[in-house]
Structures are given as C-alpha cells and as structure tokens.
Amino acid sequence: MRRLLPILIAAILLLTSCSFPLQQSTPNAQDLATKVAQTLTAWPTFPSTQTPVPTSILPTLTITPTSASTASATPTTSPDDPVLSLGTPTFSDTFTSGSAFGLKTPYEDNAIHIEAIDGSLVFRSLAVHQGWRWRLTSRMARNLYLEGTFTTVSCAGLDHYGLMFRAPTYDDGVGYYVALSCDGQTYMQYWDGSKSHTLLDWTPAPSALTGKNQTNRLGVMVKEHTFAIYVNGVLVKTVGDDVLNEKGHFGVFVSALDTPNFTFKLDEIKEWDQP
User: Fold this and answer.
1) What backbone torsions phi and psi does residue 178 show, to the nearest 5 degrees?
2) In degrees to the nearest 10, what's the CA dihedral of 66, 70, 76, 81?
3) Domain for residue 15, yes or no?
4) What is the tally of structural domains in the chain?
5) Which H or E element spans position 149?
6) E strand or H helix that includes residue 84
7) Are 252 and 164 in contact (CB under 8 A)?
8) What is the pLDDT of residues 145-197, one digit of tens each?
9) Distance CA 135, CA 264 (A)
10) Would you say residue 242 lies in a domain?
11) 3-state DSSP: the chain helix, strand, coil percent, rounded to 5?
12) Across the strands, what pairs with 221?
C-alpha cells in the first residue's frame, strides 16, 4: 500500500495538470490568448512528467500522397483572389509580438520550437512524425475568409503547414485543418476528438511555389458548410462538410513528415468575417 500511494498521488497531479477551464467569467482577449493550447502531439511523444501546459492527444497522421505534379515556378495572379474584394480585414497580425497567439515568450517541447522573431512567427520542427502542432488565437468566427502568408526556410516533400478553424476549444484538437505541403499539394481534414476524417486528399496546387525559401499565401473561404481552398489567390478546390456548424477559434498548424529541421515563418495572418 505504501508503494502504491506515491503512484496514485502522481496520477492525480498529472490529470489535474491536463485539465483546462473552457470558460471563465468575462475573460478578455489577452487572458484567453495566454491560455492558448501550447501543443498538439501523439500521446506517446510526451513523457508522463510533461505537465507545465495543457496537452492534447492526436495521433501522427499517416497520409499517402498522390502522384504530385510539378508546381509552377511563379504564382498565378487570379482575378478571383478573395483579398481583392474583401476590403479591410476584421483581424490581422504581422507579429510584432506573439501575444495574439499566447507567445509572449518562445515555446519549445521535444518536437517543436515556436517564437515571434522580426515580424514573423517562426516554427522550427525538432523531429519528424510527431503529429500536428497548432497555435490558436482567442478570436472566434463561423463564416470567414482566413489567409496566412507563409515562407519556407527548410522543408521537403510532404512537410506541411496550414490553417485551422472552427475549433470549439483550445486543447482537444477538434476542428478543420487545411494544409499546403512543401511539394505543392493541399489537403483538408476534420478531427473529431478521436480520429481524423479526410475531406480532401492530397491534391496538387499548380499556383503553389515549391521547395525552401518560397512564400505562399494559403487561404480558405468558409461559408456555412462549404470550404473553398486558395493558394496564392487561386482556387484549388471546394469541399463540403456539415459537422462543425458553430463559430470557433482559428490559427495555424504544422506537421513535419520529411525534414527533422522543417522550418517556416508565418509572416502574416488575416481574417475577414463573412455573413
């Protein structure tokens, strides 16, 4: 019995440390931003002693790529680019600090380092096949156009970054995910809290710039149950799903599949509320 007591106490402390209040009375935006979930990872990744921040359980994605076509060398300008007609964003961040994403100071775990540096939010992976990592803002929206400007530093193949939206909470991973890979492909998935559902398998985006040291704009127009994916202002694919219908948090996620030092910069993120 004496041997079991320390184990039971440790288990109770661990469970308590992973709890997360979903709502407090009249929180302000900055308070919420500092409570952004720090990381999303496969459960075996973290040792049981990892307790300083809330963690979520999400398995490493196993996605079989389609045969990728070679993306164009320069982005295509499209008159259908949503930003040409949307006007002033409802929300934008050029990362003079990381406070909107709960990053007043850098964050690092055994698989990712995230830090606001020189007007960009820099994501540097420390290992491959460690699941998704995300950062969310305190803002919430239902119908929106969300766009991030990403610059790759070190990447290859199916290393990918992307946008997350309609996330009900910070820490359970539930939400929609739209990604762009280093070799110029997009996908979209929905995570329901226990498994992922593919809404769009890997699909070549001819308007994407591939490889390292390239800048791409990845956007998604969300209207009711329809999601239109854009790369550099060019429509790639429109998909539909009606599972998550309420407003939710939005932000950015990353997954390193080919490059242990996969690094990119989020130079800017913009969001336009839609009716």
Assistant:
1) -120, 130
2) 10
3) no
4) 1
5) strand 144-154
6) helix 83-86
7) yes
8) 999 999 999 999 999 999 999 999 988 889 999 999 999 999 999 999 888 89
9) 14
10) yes
11) 10, 45, 45
12) 145, 228
- Phi, psi for 75 (deg, rounded to 5): -70, 150
Classify 193 as helix, strand or coil. Answer: coil
Q: Is residue 11 scored above 90 in pLDDT?
A: no
Q: Residue 76: pLDDT band by 50, 70, 90 thresholds?
A: low
> At residue 225, does pLDDT exceed 90?
yes
> 66-83 burial by CB neighbour count: b if 16+ within 10 A, else e?
eebeebbeebeeeeebbe
pTM beyond cutoff 0.70 = yes
Higher pLDDT, 4 or 77: 77
Domain of 192, CATH number, reads 2.60.120.560
- Using alpha carbons, select from 123, 131, 128 the residue that is nearest to residue 256: 128
How far apart are alpha carbons 208 and 74 in whole angstroms? Answer: 8
Q: Give the helix/strand (H/E) hosting 32.
A: helix 29-33
Per the structure, the complete domain to which residue 124 belongs is given by: 29-61+72-273
Region of 87 please: left (phi>0), alpha (psi -120 to 50) or beta. left
Q: Is residue 194 part of a domain?
A: yes
